[in-house]
């Protein structure tokens, strides 16, 4: 896992090189609390706990953006249309989120090569999946769009296409020419 700050040296790479190395999409989040990381292996098989921060999602997003350089970046690298990535608390998931408000298998992301984006479907999680602060619901499968916020329980992510992240990195590096 890398931070936005660690990606800054790659701002000078071409978009094609950046996308080839990173993948099509990035999910960016605040680092998971060290305590949760330490106890994550023992949480497998345990019950999901209720959300503590549902009413403060917008406030937490603003805090994320203020500390953008220290956010963690998860790259999603789909190989074919329809490929699915599981999200949850266990090591069996493609995107492991070691946080007690995240269900063992919380949601599934599905790649749509035609649009260049993922859709998300909640896996009947205890605390739900949220897009831009709105609950997704159990039966819905919704297409994500560049810049959307995505929350699994209390853990909030910023969903960015590789080209958007690359542009943010380029604009933040002094002396880097604008595209």
From TrEMBL:
- PROSITE patterns, sorted: FHA_DOMAIN
Under the heading Gene3D superfamilies, the entry gives: 2.60.200.20
**What highest taxon heads this organism's lineage?**
Bacteria
Output the SUPFAM superfamilies linked to this UniProt entry. Answer: SMAD/FHA domain (SSF49879)
State one Pfam family annotation: FHA
The cross-references to CDD domains, in alphabetical order and at most eight, read: FHA
FHA domain residues = 85-136
State the protein's name.
Answer: FHA domain-containing protein
């Amino acid at each position: 896992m890398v931070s936005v700050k660690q990606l800054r040296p790659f701002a000078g790479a071409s978009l094609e090189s950046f996308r080839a190395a990173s993948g099509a999409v990035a999910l960016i989040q605040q680092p998971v609390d060290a305590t949760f990381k330490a106890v994550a292996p023992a949480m497998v098989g345990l019950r999901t706990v209720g959300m503590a921060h549902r009413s403060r999602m917008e406030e937490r997003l603003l805090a994320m953006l203020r500390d953008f350089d220290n956010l963690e970046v998860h790259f999603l690298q789909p190989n074919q249309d329809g490929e699915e990535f599981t999200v949850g608390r266990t090591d069996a998931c493609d995107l492991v989120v070691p946080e007690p408000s995240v269900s063992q298998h919380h949601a599934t992301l599905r790649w749509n090569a035609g649009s260049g984006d993922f859709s998300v479907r909640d896996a009947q999680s205890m605390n739900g999946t949220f897009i831009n602060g709105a609950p997704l619901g159990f039966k819905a499968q919704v297409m994500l769009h560049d810049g959307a916020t995505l929350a699994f329980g209390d853990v909030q992510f910023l969903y960015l296409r590789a080209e958007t992240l690359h542009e943010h990195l380029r604009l933040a590096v002094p002396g880097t020419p604008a595209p």
